[in-house]
Design a protein that fits this description.
heterodimer; A: about 230 residues; Phosphorylase Kinase, domain 1; Transferase(Phosphotransferase), domain 1; 3-stranded antiparallel sheet; 11 strands; globular; B: about 350 residues; alpha/beta; 6-stranded mixed sheet; binds adenosine-5'-triphosphate; binds fe (ii) ion; binds magnesium ion; acyltransferase (chain B); tRNA processing (chain B); Glycoprotease 2 (chain B); nucleus (chain B); ATPase_NBD (chain B)
């Protein structure tokens, strides 16, 4: 075992690849498959009752969200094992790099960029039309594989199934979060989100209600008093 | 070395009026402040707040000079809050600043209030390039510096955390003296029972409307039934709301690959919020930077200091242009004094 490899739960040979906000992500092997182990750990800053509730909820939603997304025709990693004792999920390791890194590397043609952005919009629309809200649509949570440019969505811990009357609000907020994530991570490349939204608008069956609410969510931010 | 430049800063965008004197070496020579306090159950209105500021600002300027042991001749420039904030109080403060600028014949520098909080926090704590959690009555933002701007990574999608705390305090009928948030913090220390409340995080954004409406109906019912005390409610409310804030801050830290965190704004002086944030920062091998109520809460020095930084870049404006604006986003101004 090399120095950086460690045992996580019952899984040997785990190599830390990312210390996220909620957990650690390791590269490992699972029955010879290249796998990713994502473990959520206790957050000591929050009340134990709240901590338990959130950890459990998110572990559950991460798995459910991935399965639901698949049913809607969106590529997600295959879940191999869920362990509620150690709050970890083992899933297939997706080949490729995050859309964030891909954009930063900048080694793409205009046409390829257009294809990726429109695929993002189309697939988010498919999720939304199936009542699935991702909850954290950042460019780090979408993996792109070269040269095919096929996309895989990951990190469904904040995802949820929206019910009828909350649909427009939840989807509007999801788009708003995505817009800001694009703006912040790629401040030097304006207009990326607009291209994705364009594709979204063509694909979705609920454009009017979602777009109205999305515009309203944006306005709320603009109009809010900023005293203090 | 030459004599340091000296700036007098004016802040009156909300219910505090502050005048501060800072030198270009970062020394805070004086920073007096007065707060407009309203009766329990009520908030502050623009007109009354402006009136309060008008009544106390001139003596406050005199007090500030006296405390700093300076005369008007020593002042090299005046900085004022251009926005964001409440119109009438902002303008009342700016009018006095403009008058003094003309009498004293010194240049004027406009300052964004949010940038004031951030730069003051960096000055007082020595934090270099932290993720900033800016939490106050009207703002809830997670901010990171990049390419000459303070960029907003996460924020509230509805009401601000301070506003949420104030309204919750109003529901419970807590005093506004010295601030509703302070009284919630004190009462929370006596709470023992954790009551689950709505928790709402969306990526790096938060929403507080759910927990506020829960507090307004369900929590009040629990209180009436006697199954929870006011202290329990304050405790549970704080634990939930602050956990949301720490979570989005941590997400931004992971996202930006930043280790340190700085808390600014009025809610930032809450000791429980600081303690929770410190646990998170420690776990990530980073550092928490926070300040006490002297600098967290609106004050004049937090305007004087960025005023000096901008003055150093030659950013002065003529009197006619020294206007105010109620909306002025944190990511609007160009931060030309930072090169990193
Ligand atoms: N199945 C996978 N295949 C390949 N890489 C992955 C996979 N899952 C995660 N990663 C990599 O690990 C990173 C972090 O994973 P993920 O987004 O699931 O966790 P996180 O960001 O820590 O969660 P959170 O956003 O809630 O903090 C991803 O951005 C990606 O680079
Ligand atoms: Fe403020
Ligand atoms: Mg992620």
């Amino acid at each position: 075992m090399t120095e950086e490899e460690q045992v996580v739960g019952l899984v040997p040979k785990c190599k830390l690849v990312c210390q996220g906000a909620e957990g650690r992500v390791f590269e490992t092997r699972y029955f010879k498959r290249r796998a990713i182990l994502k473990q959520r750990f206790d957050k000591m800053y929050r009340h134990p009752i709240l901590n338990k509730k959130l950890t459990r909820q998110r572990l559950g939603m991460e798995v459910k969200g991935m399965m639901k997304a698949r049913k809607l025709g969106i590529r997600t990693p295959t879940v191999l094992l869920v362990d509620t004792e150690t709050n970890s999920i083992i899933m297939d390791r997706v080949e490729g790099i995050t859309v964030k890194d891909w954009l930063r590397k900048g080694k793409y043609t205009e046409e390829e960029l257009g294809r990726v952005l429109s695929a993002i919009g189309t697939q988010v629309a498919a999720m939304h039309d199936g009542s699935l809200v991702h909850g954290d649509l950042t460019t780090s949570n979408i993996i792109v594989r070269e040269p095919s440019l096929e996309l895989t969505f990951i990190d469904f811990g904040l995802s949820f199934n929206t019910v009828a009357q909350n649909g427009p609000e939840d989807k509007g907020v999801d788009l708003y979060v995505m817009e800001r994530a694009f703006l912040n991570a790629h401040a030097d490349k304006p207009g990326l989100f607009d291209k994705a939204l364009e594709a979204y608008s063509q694909k979705t069956n609920q454009w009017k209600s979602t777009f109205n609410r999305y515009s309203e969510v944006r306005m709320r931010g603009r109009k809010r008093s900023m005293v203090g | 070395m030459g004599k340091p430049t000296i700036c007098m800063g004016f802040e009156g965008s909300a219910n505090k009026i502050g005048v501060g004197i800072v030198t270009s070496d970062g020394d805070i020579l004086a920073n007096p402040r007065k707060t407009f306090i309203t009766p329990p159950g009520t908030g502050f209105l623009p007109r009354e707040t402006a009136l309060h500021h008008q009544q106390v600002i001139v003596p406050l300027v005199q007090e500030c000079l006296k405390e700093a042991n300076l005369t008007p001749k020593d002042i090299d420039c005046l900085a004022y809050t251009k926005g964001p904030g409440m119109g009438a109080p902002l303008v009342s403060t700016a009018v006095v600043m403009r008058t003094l600028a003309q009498i004293w014949k010194v240049p004027i520098v406009p300052v964004n209030h949010c940038v004031g909080h951030i730069e003051m926090g960096r000055l007082v704590t020595g934090a270099v390039d932290p993720i900033v959690l800016y939490v106050s009555g009207g703002n809830t933002q997670v901010i990171a510096y990049s390419e000459k701007r303070y960029r907003i990574f996460g924020e509230t999608i509805d009401i601000a955390v301070g506003n949420c705390l104030d309204r919750f305090a109003r529901v419970l009928g807590l005093s506004n003296d010295p601030s509703p948030g302070y009284n919630i913090e004190q009462l929370a220390k006596e709470g023992s029972q954790y009551i689950e409340m709505p928790y709402n995080v969306k990526g790096m954004d938060v929403s507080f409307s759910g927990i506020l409406s829960f507090a307004e109906d369900t929590a009040v019912k629990l209180l009436k039934k006697g199954t929870a005390t006011k202290a329990d409610l304050c405790y549970s409310f704080q634990e939930t709301v602050f956990a949301m804030l720490v979570e989005i801050t941590e997400r931004a830290m992971a996202h930006c690959n930043t280790q340190d965190v700085l808390i600014v704004g009025g809610v930032g002086c809450n000791k429980r919020l600081q303690a929770m944030m410190k646990i998170m920062a420690d776990e990530r091998g980073g550092k928490l930077y926070a300040t006490d109520e002297r600098y967290c809460i609106d004050n004049g020095a937090m305007i004087a200091w960025p005023g000096l930084l901008a003055f150093g870049q030659g950013d002065t404006i003529p009197v006619e242009e020294s206007t105010c604006t109620q909306r002025y986003r944190t990511d609007d101004p160009v931060i030309n004094w930072r090169d990193d």
